[in-house]
Amino acid sequence: MKITKQQLIKLIQEEMSLVKLGDTPQNNPIVSPNDPYSDHIDQEGESAKRQLQQILDYSSELLSMLNDNEQLESWIQSKLTKALDYVSTVKHHLEYETAPDGHEGCTCGGCSANESYE
């Protein structure tokens, strides 16, 4: 299918207007209101709790497998550092989101109000 330059510009403008609207199913004319997924409520909290339980189980197993003076390969240490960073970031973000006074309730130890956790 070939389109003209004007048609392409019109398509881009339509897409940009959707982005400006937030592109939610409620204000996206492309998505039908009868779309079975438009009002779908998933179980993200339940799924997150299962994932956190797996992290807890694996962490406990790893703790019992390692000795204090054990030398780890650099890639293993790197993965552990990333895992800590990811879990820590989620924890601090949720603390910030649920704090009644914003960052004042955050216990991350020195973050600024302009800092982003995403």
Q: Which key features would you list for this structure?
A:
118 residues, mainly alpha
Q: Brief description of this entry?
A:
This protein is an all-alpha fold.
Total of helices: 3
Catalogue the unreliable spans: none
Question: Percent range for helical residues?
Answer: 40-55%
Strand content: under 5%
Please state the average pLDDT score: 75
Largest sheet features: none
Shape: elongated
Report the radius of gyration as a whole number of Å: 23 Å
- Tell me the structural class: mainly alpha
Number of strands: 0
- In whole angstroms, the N-to-C terminal distance is 40 Å
Order of helices and strands: HHH
Can you offer a commentary on this structure?
The protein is mainly α and 118 residues long. The relative contact order is 0.05. The protein is built from three helices and no strands. Among the domains are: 1-32; 75-118, no CATH class. The chain starts with a helix and ends in a 20-residue tail after the last helix.
Task: Indicate the topology.
Elements: H1 5-21, H2 44-65, H3 74-98
